[in-house]
Amino acid sequence: MQRIYEPENLMEGELLQQMLASEGIEAHLVGRHLLGGTGELPIFGLLGLEVENHQASCARELITAYIGAQPMPSDDPDNVPDVLVC
Question: Is the pTM of this model over 0.85?
């Protein structure tokens, strides 16, 4: 197993874990149970996504592409008339 990414928080870690699962890569989110002790433990580096060694390169590429993704032009609320934006 290789640690391929350190998410900023639990929500990001779970989101990326599910994104990898949708691509057929089983990722393990380690450190999630340590978050309850953040008052006692240093808060950096507790969470990590780990995958099997042979899937590490592909998983890193998917995470990099996912994080760097930009919204599609049609997702811009200014391009859609009569849409209430809250």
Answer: no
